[in-house]
Amino acid sequence: MFTKKSCIGVIGSGAMGSGIAQVAATAGHEVYIFDSNASALEKAKKNLEASLQKLVEKQKITEKHSDAIIKNTNFTSELNNFKECDLVIEAIIENLEVKQKLFSELEKIVSETCVLSSNTSSLSITSIASAVAKPERVIGVHFFNPATLMPLVEIIPGIASDENIVNETKKLIDSWGKITVVAKDTPGFIVNRVARSFYGEALRINEEGIADIATIDWAMKEVGGFKMGPFELMDLIGHDVNYVVTETVWKQFYFDPRFKPAIAQKRLLEAGFLGRKSGRGFYNYKEGSVMPEPTKNKELAIQIFNRIIAMLINEACDTVYLKIATPEDVDLAMTKGVNYPKGLLKWADDLGVKEVLGTLNNLYELYGEDRYRPSLLLKFMGTNSKRFY
Ligand SMILES: NC(=O)c1ccc[n+]([C@@H]2O[C@H](COP(=O)([O-])OP(=O)(O)OC[C@H]3O[C@@H](n4cnc5c(N)ncnc54)[C@H](O)[C@@H]3O)[C@@H](O)[C@H]2O)c1
Question: What is the number of the ligand 1 atom nearest to the C-alpha of 237?
Fold first, then answer.
């Protein structure tokens, strides 16, 4: 269905759209990129040139390849230029009504066979697809930031998506050197759902006064081998983004306490303490400020790690149990989308599924909160001494 000659359209030339366009043009496709804001389009053009220049300097690509990528990329303020596109990837503002309006406009411009896709992080693909006459040609393709560097792309069929279109789009994006996983159209798909516990349980441990933020961050790096601790990572992502994703996932899951946001993070957002980008979040990044030291207590660190990893594994289990994705795809998603040192189900095998279940059972008994209920799959695997791999 798609070939090297397929023409790719990208709508939205912000952080994600510009990266996605670069990926497609680098793979040799003719690309059209559109934005409703002329200065955003101009900025994306300059950024592409600068990014390619750096790659040439680092000898990652040749000058000739760089010229070809620039030639392949057509910046346009005319949506009519999308007539020739075989696949359109939308990466505009995260707003359902605005996306629906765009898709219904787009449908009148593109050919009958053009595949329409969205890079949405948190909206339902099915709801976006409901705005067009042929929802079978609409799917989700969720790239990670920065799209040029992060290998993972979640492929999300909507309820009405054509299976062949899903498979062919997956194949095309694989051919761009990306690692694709398929996820059911559910809140947060795989990564933005499973990763919630990394932040949520760390916040809860801190809220209860079990450990301070520096100690929790140190524990996850020291015992778990994570590149960054949860508080450092939340500060890097920005609380405007991280808190909003948590709240959106929580609301979409009908207020399931497993995804409940933390008041402490909401207060940071309200104060404008957005993290690194604003100079202050959980940590203070202003010049001259002293970073807090962790309490390097190995026993406490293991306790913290066991609790957070058990919650992460539990969510990974539920994602598999509810047929949102396969165990292999859940593990690939977390290692390739958010750089976890190990897939969570592989981690469960290594730690002992029975032990992980034991940790959750203890939490469930202690707190009596639904938040700590073990997934049925974890229960089954743990009580029958089974392994995922
Ligand atoms: N930033 C991330 O980390 C990330 C990761 C994965 C997915 N996403 C998703 O990708 C999408 C884009 O996010 P972003 O971070 O690139 O946003 P961004 O704000 O950097 O860019 C959005 C661009 O869309 C343009 N735009 C807005 N409305 C438009 C319209 N109606 N028609 C044409 N252009 C329009 C804006 O001018 C802007 O240039 C969102 O759906 C977001 O949820 C973001």
Answer: 3
Nearest ligand 1 atom to the CA of 145 is: 3
Residues 247 and 103 in one domain: no
Task: Note whether 64 and 152 are same-domain residues.
Answer: yes
pTM greater than 0.70: yes
Maximum Cα–Cα distance for the chain, whole Å?
Answer: 64
Active site residues: 121, 142, 154, 192
**Beta bridge partner(s), residue 284:** 280
Cα-to-centroid distance, 41 and ligand 1 (Å):
12
238 lies in the same domain as 357: yes
Domain residues for 357? 193-383
Q: Which of 92, 97, 135, 96 is nearest to 116 (CA)?
A: 135
Number of domains in the chain: 2
Last residue of a domain, one of 150, 182, 214: 182
Cβ neighbours of residue 152 closer than 8 Å, sequence gap 6 or more:
143, 144, 178, 179, 180, 181, 191, 332, 333, 336, 337
Please state whether 368 falls in left (phi above 0), alpha (psi between -120 and 50) or beta: left
pLDDT, one tens digit per residue, over 115-146 is 999 999 989 999 999 999 999 999 999 999 99
Together in a domain, 255 and 276: yes
Protein residues whose CB sits closer than 6 Å to any atom of ligand 1: 11-17, 35-37, 40, 91-94, 98, 102, 119-121, 143-145
Could you tell me if 15 and 109 lie in one domain? Answer: yes
Q: Which atom belonging to ligand 1 lies closest to the Cα atom of 94?
A: 41
Task: Tell me the best of 23, 89, 92 to mutate to test the pocket of ligand 1, counting ligand atoms within 8 Å of each CB and taking the most.
Answer: 92
Same domain, 150 and 258: no
Within a domain: 2: no
| pLDDT tens readout for residues 272-290 | 999 999 999 999 999 999 9
Helix (H) or strand (E) holding 116: strand 115-118
137 inside domain: yes
Q: Which mutation among 11, 23, 34, 35 tests ligand 1's pocket best, with the greatest number of atoms within 8 A of CB?
A: 35
Check whether residue 131 and residue 223 sit in a common domain. no
